[in-house]
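UDP-glucose 4-epimerase: structure, please.
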Amino acid sequence: MTWLITGGAGYIGAHVARAMAQAGEAAVVLDDLSSGIAGRLPEGVPLVHGSVGDREALDRVLAEHRVTGVVHLAAAKQVAESVEQPLRYYRENVHGLTVLLEAVVAAGVPRFLFSSSAAVYGVPELDPIPESAPCVPINPYGETKLAGEWLVRAAGRAYGLRTACLRYFNVAGAERPELADTGVFNIVPMFFDRITRGEEPRIFGDDYPTPDGTCIRDYIHVSDLADAHLTVARRLAERGEPGDLTVNIGRGAGVSVRELAALVGEVTGVPVRPVVEPRRPGDAARAVASVDLIAAELGWSAKRGVREMVESAWAGWLLRHPEAARQDG
Ligand SMILES: NC(=O)c1ccc[n+]([C@@H]2O[C@H](COP(=O)([O-])OP(=O)(O)OC[C@H]3O[C@@H](n4cnc5c(N)ncnc54)[C@H](O)[C@@H]3O)[C@@H](O)[C@H]2O)c1
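Here you go.
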């Protein structure tokens, strides 16, 4: 078995590559390094510099490394940017996936694992959210992830693949400081960014129908997420009928934005008094995963808590922002 990990030099991909390498699974990474960092890859996992939209590069890597399964993480992932540049998002996330699936089918690779997102649910009406909940994405990013799931399942049915679509909830933390998320698009690094600048973290709306009035989300440690990939990949590698497994990856536990801000204050030692700004359009009051399906299908559940996420993310932040340590109590 050799796994091709697309986007394996990215934040989540590097954790997946590491989990696979540590578990003794052979892997190769294809990454165009548009946001990835080559130095994140663990020893023994080669990097092929190329794009999932490049059919020749795909044919080469699938053949040369005798790839028998694909974990597809490469994507553009910023919601706001997707609203401004929908065509780019459809090209990267949907066209890129189509080219990849064509290469996969032509090479006879029988397993395909796809990075999806809780963004496919849009503004969920169910709490917790089961995988059977209606998928009504509210931005082009979420649309491309839902279209991606459709493509993966349709190709799986037509060509006899074993497929999995993993709907990640809010990813945070790092296995090691150098693997931390370098973007400031998710809430934990956004809070760190504000306090490093000497500004208060922002909370968008505190009049939601939740106990403290702020939005509630389901945070998942990136190391747990990587472990889930390994578990699912191994399930796909077992003998069995073609078919699809679409599952949420979360903890099934909600944390409010205000609770998270307080935890960031405790971990960083910086007293935080979040400023409340108006609600953002499209933010649900509560978005928490039902994790029953993955528990039932794979016996998998997350192990790490939110404090571990914030502590490990802060260690990564300090590595790249030593100036923040001045405020570190
Ligand atoms: N971070 C999150 O909170 C989150 C939540 C839900 C889903 N996801 C999904 O997880 C996946 C990984 O996200 P991440 O947070 O690690 O992002 P990231 O930007 O750190 O990683 C994406 C990686 O893909 C590479 N890449 C982008 N376009 C490529 C292309 N055309 N060909 C080859 N490589 C390409 C980038 O260089 C980067 O290494 C994405 O599919 C994203 O949509 C992320």
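Notes: The radius of gyration is 19 Å.
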